[in-house]
Amino acid sequence: MYRFAINVDYIGTAYCGWQVQPDLRTVQGEIENALFKLTGEKPSVVGSGRTDAGVHALCQTAHFDLSKEWEPKRLVGGLNHFLARDIRILGARQTSADFHARFDCVEKSYIYVMYRAPERAVLTDRAWAVDPDIDVEKMKRAALRFIGEKDFKSFMAGGSDTVSSVRKVLKADVCERDGFIIFQTSANGFLYNMVRIMTSVIEAAGRGRLSESDVDFLIAAKDRTLVRGTAPACGLYLESQKYGKE
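Above: the chain sequence. Below: its structure as tokens.
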């Protein structure tokens, strides 16, 4: 068997997330269907993580095995031919047989895109319209409270099967440029809905509803019921992943 890694970008609006689900359209399912049409094989495509319905990706890594060797350029062209235009294969490469897109990932980065209201039709399902008077400096200071190795149980949605809610956040920054407010964060891993819940807290801080000390309290409390709200999926983009080996 030959193992291949691919980098994928997609607009998640039309999909029920990454992971295959019965009778639902998903990104993983679409790629597996395209692989069957191209190669006649039905490999399982393993992603670096499982994005939710409506979440986008600028670059998501995945791997799969094929029984025959393929030229990466031909694999990219063939898959893109069979995929809808809201999913694109950016690149492909043959990897070692033990490379794993999920378990070998040592760092993930996300961005969350917001803009000041009123809502814009052209940004529908691409970004979150927030209060026009939101204070970006307050958002930035609140975001910094997330940095470090901490227990983020308060920022984990129900339904997660994770063993530990401790994660190491390496970056949490907010900036405003070209009319957009962008929250960028990197960590050694994220909990279910963690980035969207973090964004919700940062947005509340920007409206003066929460202080920096409130963020510290919410982290220390380890209680999801104290953290109200989850930012909509439309503004979230998986940006990149880093690997310790290939």
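Strands lie at 2-10, 46-47, 56-66, 87-94, 105-116, 128-130, 148-151, 166-177, 180-187, 236-243.
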